[in-house]
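Below is a filled-in request sheet from our internal design queue. Each sheet records the structural input a requester submitted and the sequence that came back. We keep these sheets so that new team members can see what a complete request looks like end to end.

REQUESTER: design group, bay 2
PRIORITY: normal
MODE: inverse folding
CHAIN LENGTH: 183
BACKBONE (tokenized):
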């Protein structure tokens, strides 16, 4: 089913999505990869504030290539989500509502998704140039010294993703295998 949602994502939107839904996101999302997640985790350990309010926000696991002239960002494909798994349950418990990446997630992340009524989306790997066309603006807002791994605020319009793990714990990677094996 095709769904159109706004970001930050409401609890109602997050819980209405089902594994396998095609979703088009419009609004504000943030980027963060390994180094930014480590730095945020260290900040939390030191009782320091995070550079972004996680409440109802979506983090896209992406490090862009340089922008071509006239574009806000270069190729913007997803990175492997499992590299953030050790940090994700904590961030979900602090209000993060969605993540965009590629690949499988750990059981701990899946449990935290269910506990927090959140959602994990996949963006198509290898389609970074196409995905960048949905990004209307990009601004580094934290950890500029990390280069492509800095935290960015993106304004997106109809950014295409697929729900992989929904708020009930349904996992498209698992259900798709079962459906395929039954044919």
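RETURNED SEQUENCE:
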């Amino acid at each position: 089913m095709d769904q159109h949602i706004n970001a930050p994502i409401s609890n109602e939107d997050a819980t209405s999505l089902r594994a396998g839904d095609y979703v088009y996101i419009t609004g504000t999302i943030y980027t963060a990869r390994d180094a930014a997640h480590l730095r945020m985790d260290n900040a939390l350990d030191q009782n320091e504030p995070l550079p972004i309010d996680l409440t109802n926000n979506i983090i896209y696991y992406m490090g862009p290539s340089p922008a071509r002239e006239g574009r806000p960002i270069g190729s913007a494909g997803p990175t492997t989500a499992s590299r953030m798994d050790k940090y994700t349950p904590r961030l979900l418990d602090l209000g993060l509502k969605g993540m965009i990446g590629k690949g499988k997630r750990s059981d701990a992340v899946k449990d935290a998704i269910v506990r927090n009524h959140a959602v994990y989306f996949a963006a198509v790997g290898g389609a970074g140039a196409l995905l960048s066309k949905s990004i209307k603006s990009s601004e580094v807002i934290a950890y500029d010294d990390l280069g492509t791994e800095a935290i960015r605020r993106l304004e997106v319009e109809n950014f295409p993703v697929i729900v992989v793990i929904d708020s009930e714990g349904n996992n498209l990677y698992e259900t798709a295998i079962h459906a395929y094996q039954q044919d």
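SHEET NOTES:
- The chain has a mean pLDDT of 94.
- The first strand starts at residue 2 and ends at 7.
FILED BY: M.R.
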